[in-house]
Fold this protein.
Amino acid sequence: MAGLHPYHILIASDSFKGSLTSVEANELIAQGVRQACHNVYISCVAVADGGEGTVDAFMRQCKGDLRELSVEGSFGNPVKAKYGLLSNGAAVIEAAAAAGIGLSGRTEDDALRASTYGVGQLISDALDHGATTIYVGLGGSATSDGGAGAFEALGGRLYAGDGRPVARGLVGLKDVKSLDSSQLDPRLRQARVVALADVLNPLCGPKGAIYTFGPQKGLQAAHLDTFESWMVRWAFVTQQNSKHDVSGVLGAGAAGGLGFGLAAFCHAHVEHGIEVLLRAIGFDRMLTGVDLVITGEGKIDKQTALGKTPVGIAQHACAKGIPVVAVVGSRSEDLGDVWEQGIGLVVPAVIVPATLQECISRIGMTLPIAGESAMRAFLLGQRA
């Protein structure tokens, strides 16, 4: 079909948090592209980098089934969570399905109590159903417990100095003196666990889980030094048990340290979520014959260059000499290394001052306009 049209445009946008799924964003951008050029072939690819929409992106491109079960939510309440079981023996889990920031009031009390226990339950269920590879998307969590909750759900035990169990969540880490991994699910030794991260932060330090992401989850700036000391304690106790230190692994600080916990107790590899997805769906093959790639996300900033969806898409497209435009909800003034990663143009949908709620309510109108601008810029370049 592409051969019947002068241009083949591939659209692969991430979701716009709180407003659009990847599929919805792709379609709105496509509407704008068609406004600029009626005679065009458009292919849309649902993508995600480990956050919201990761399961859906895998399921749309790979054969498999969705499984839903009740697990323990961030605060101990039961929640319904879905994950994907692929026909190749892999499972795809989003940490946010059990411990998402959307389930939190973003108060300090919530941030202290939020636990990854439900994520561990999802991993256990995937093992029950024969999964040999388990992908865990780390984006969008409410937690800062270093993966301690998931560890307990998988059979581990945490103890205070007097031998009593500790509380769930970050608040429990202040009391942890020892842990017991002898009853950890033995099936983890045979399974391959891959943590899908969209950030490169280590567990501890100024760029670690507490200082970087804690305030977003409700932790107060005045208390961060104290909470950091708890996380350092957790890293030390874990290292004593496992005999190896993974706190400095890039991405260990993702999902409030869940990346660290999975690496320490499940021997997980922490990888860029978008790279894992693009390999799994054969994205490079999809680029054959493409003239322009349009990607996007809700807000593009210098963090995007560290491994988020638009940069992952751009790197693959640029390797084949295909120009890339990012259509986004908004952009920051400083984009850091985004330009060096292959994105040639950024087109924001927000062009007048507006509140976040106003931007969300208008996205159905503004995103197609941004898509049209992206296509017109491409056509202008073709005339040069």
Observations:
- The domain at 54-274 is CATH 3.90.1510.10 (Glycerate kinase, domain 2).
- The chain has two domains: 2-44+291-383, 54-274.
